[in-house]
Amino acid sequence: MSEVSAKILLLLIFAARGTSFLFSKTLMYSMPPLSILAVRFLLAFLILAVIFHKRMKRELAASLRGGIILGVLYTVCMVFEMYALRQIDTGVCSLIENMAIVLVPLYAAVLTRSIPKKKTMLCAVLAVAGVGFLSLSQSQTGGGGTGILLSVLAAITYGVCIMATETVSREGDPAVTGILQLGVMGFLSLLLSLATEDFRLPEGPGQWSMILMLVLVCSCFGFALQPVGQKYVPAETAAVFTVVNPLTTSVMGIWIAGERLTGAKSAGYILILVSLFLYNYRGKKMRSPQAVS
Question: 0.85 cut: is pTM over it?
Fold first, then answer.
């Protein structure tokens, strides 16, 4: 595969992930949020486990610990995300959550007791200012404040997920770890659904089509082919492409879901996108963050 083809593949992968916010929000009008997560990730796990069954059997023991750790952390992140989506616009939720890319070096600075780089601090300030404008844009929405808070919690958790992924990926097989992660997420979501809500399977072609989009396009496609694309593209380039995720969500929210583009929202979008671009531009080599959305 040429580098140009790999870049196109990565752009398609991150754009596909960006569609998950709109599908999830639409499904929540007729399905409980935890039921959606349970069905989505259990199906994705089963499909990938069948495809990679030989690899799973060979690397299961070495990858189990990492899969459990990431599965628990990403479940917390996705629960925050889903309940945030019930309260606020998809683009707002996606942009705030993807601030995690900027939060990671701040976490690392705290852990190493070092001073963050000036560029990192600038990006963090821009991102926080963007969240402020997005909060203003959602202030007239019932539950908007709660949705913003849940999105921030999702971003904080996502940052922890990224750091944990970097650590546990050194254990076992990364692909098997990722598959096990999806299985843990589906199992935990199912338990939470049974304990807190009326668990329901999708009904009718409309619900099943959106679930299958979440499973096949947003989970399986991105999971299985991202390593292929990154084999031919520098890690810092792949990191820049992650910005396509919230950008796709924002565009779809405005054009398809009819979400209003106010002045405050526009300012928030610009500040956070500039923050993400600035942080990733010619940044140090890094592992592109694994996303489940």
Answer: no
Region for residue 282 given its phi and psi (left: phi exceeds 0; alpha: psi -120 to 50; beta: otherwise): left
pLDDT tens-digit readout, 163-176:
887 777 677 888 88
CB 95 within 8 A of CB 81: no
- Would you list the domain boundaries of the chain? 3-280
Q: Which of 214, 239, 251 is nearest to 290 (CA)?
A: 239
Rounded to 5 degrees, φ, ψ at 31 are: -130, 145
Distance CA 275, CA 273 (A): 5
Mean pLDDT of the chain: 82
| Measured distance CA(249)–CA(216) in Å, rounded | 18
In this model, does residue 25 exceed pLDDT 70? yes
